[in-house]
């Protein structure tokens, strides 16, 4: 860009702003005080309408929350009751299971004791039976040896 065109742009901007200001002052339908008063009134009206909208929305929200709260409280109470009932049932099942395990443990110990005593009885009878057979064979051998010697 050349210096000449840059200077022309700045000069045109200043000239345009000056003409716009003069035209605005000459063609304005009201005085500055009246224009400022109208702008202030418009801002006050906008502020009041925003404030009213906030109050209405706030009141509607409070009413809806007031209607919803009893439903939420009732549902919460119902859920708490169900959770408590489930806990009680779990405690009953746990106690029943503990009792069943205790009884089964005692019965298992009894069965193990019975089997152990039966095994001991069989072992004792087997060892007694073996010793009787061994003694009988010894007697046969002794008798046969004495018969051989006598003959």
Walk me through this protein's architecture.
- This protein has 151 residues and is mostly helical.
- It is built from two helices and no strands.
- The longest helix is centred in the middle third of the chain and has 119 residues.
- It is rod-shaped and about 160 Å long.
Mean residue pLDDT: 83
Name the structural class: mainly alpha
Residue windows where pLDDT falls under 50 for at least 5 positions: none
Helix run count: 2
Helical coverage, percent range: over 70%
Count of β-strands: 0
- Shape type: rod-shaped
Rg, rounded, reads 57 Å
Short description:
With 151 residues, this protein is an all-alpha fold.
Give the SSE map.
Layout: H1 3-27, H2 32-150
Q: What structural keywords apply?
A:
rod-shaped
């Amino acid at each position: 860009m050349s210096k000449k065109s840059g200077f022309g742009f700045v000069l045109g901007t200043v000239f345009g702003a000056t003409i716009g200001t003069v035209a605005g002052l000459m063609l304005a339908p009201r005085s500055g005080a009246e224009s400022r008063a109208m702008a202030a009134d418009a801002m006050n009206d906008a502020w009041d309408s925003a404030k009213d909208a906030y109050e209405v929305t706030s009141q509607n929200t409070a009413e809806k929350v007031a209607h919803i709260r009893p439903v939420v409280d009732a549902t919460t109470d119902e859920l708490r009751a169900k959770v408590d009932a489930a806990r009680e049932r779990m405690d009953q099942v746990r106690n029943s299971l503990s009792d069943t395990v205790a009884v089964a443990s005692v019965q298992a110990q009894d069965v193990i004791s019975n089997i152990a005593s039966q095994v001991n009885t069989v072992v004792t009878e087997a060892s007694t039976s073996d010793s009787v057979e061994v003694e009988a064979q010894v007697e046969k051998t002794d008798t046969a040896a004495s018969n051989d010697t006598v003959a």
